[in-house]
Design a protein that fits this description.
The longest helix has about 35 residues. The chain is α+β, with helices and mostly antiparallel strands. A hairpin with a 3-residue loop joins strand 6 and strand 7. Helices cover about 55% and strands about 15% of the residues.
């Protein structure tokens, strides 16, 4: 059934119980389906708020609820207009006007910033910025660099994979990458920092009570359960209070630099618009 025809049919049925006909609505106003004094509900608005695939019974319930909610809102608005003091209504009008102006200004300034901001960030400049602020960023728990593979105990290539992992010494990363399809899980880049939570997600046998014994610099260990074995090499560990390394902080640093540029640009835009207004006499302060 055509959605618009379905809405028309359902609202016609509902209008018998929900809406008393009013002579103020003429034949040319058939697009209205409800009235509260001088406020009218357009049929199109209703159509946009009723899911097209809903059943007839669901549609009837949703239409009734929508119309009642709309009518309640209109009645409450009229009651508020009548009963609130003029001073309260003036206060609300000022709040609305301020909110509107703030939204307009915010969107306008953001569009200007997007047009003008330089998003290119030189790595040397980023390193300089990191060196200026690094003492403000300390490890909260742990940061770890490690590699691991998880292999089924029944895997026919188990011994080969263990040999390539080589007790964490001169790990054969290229061979392991090529045979990664044989592994349940793996991480073969021990130059990337991960926090303790991320590590415990990958290595579920590590928890808050035992992490100190596992997560140590240059530490190799194997953990076997009934189905698989983890081969793990911990390259380096930073502990609580250590300075957060540049490589871990780099994505955040880029955002911080961009945000600083944005703030400076916004300040400059505001200064320029005020300066231009004074120059062309569209803004002046009376003595």
């Amino acid at each position: 059934m055509n959605r618009f025809f379905k809405i028309c049919l359902l609202t016609s049925v509902l209008s018998i119980g929900l809406i008393s006909c009013d002579k103020a609505i003429s034949k040319k106003d058939d697009n209205y389906i409800a009235r509260v004094n001088n406020n009218y509900l357009d049929r199109y608005v209703l159509e946009q708020n009723i899911p097209p695939q809903s059943s007839t019974s669901d549609s009837i319930a949703m239409i009734e609820a929508f119309i009642n909610k709309w009518a309640t809102k209109q009645l409450l608005m009229e009651a508020a207009e009548f009963n609130l003091s003029d001073s309260k209504k003036k206060e609300i009008d000022e709040l609305v006007a301020n909110f509107k102006s703030e939204l307009l200004i915010k969107d306008y300034l953001e569009s200007l910033v997007q047009q003008k901001i330089d998003t290119a960030i030189n790595k040397d400049n980023l390193l300089d910025y990191y060196n200026q602020i690094k003492n403000s960023f300390r490890v909260e728990d742990m940061l770890i660099k490690l590699s691991y593979v998880n292999v089924l105990n029944t895997n026919s290539h188990y011994n080969k994979i263990k040999k390539w992992f080589n007790g964490g010494k001169n790990i054969k990363y290229d061979q392991l990458e090529q045979w990664s399809i044989q592994m349940k899980a793996y991480a073969l880049n021990d130059s990337i920092w991960a926090d303790a939570f991320q590590v415990s997600e990958k290595l579920p046998f590590i928890n808050a009570t035992n992490k100190e014994s596992y997560l140590k610099n240059n530490n190799y260990f194997e953990v076997k359960d009934e189905n698989s074995t983890y081969f793990v090499y911990v390259n380096k560990v930073l502990r609580k209070g250590d300075i957060v390394p540049y490589s871990y902080l780099e994505p955040s640093l880029r955002l911080m630099v961009l945000n600083n540029r944005k703030m400076e640009l916004l300040k400059q835009i505001e200064e320029d618009i005020l300066k231009d207004a004074k120059k062309d006499k569209s803004y002046e302060v009376f003595q």
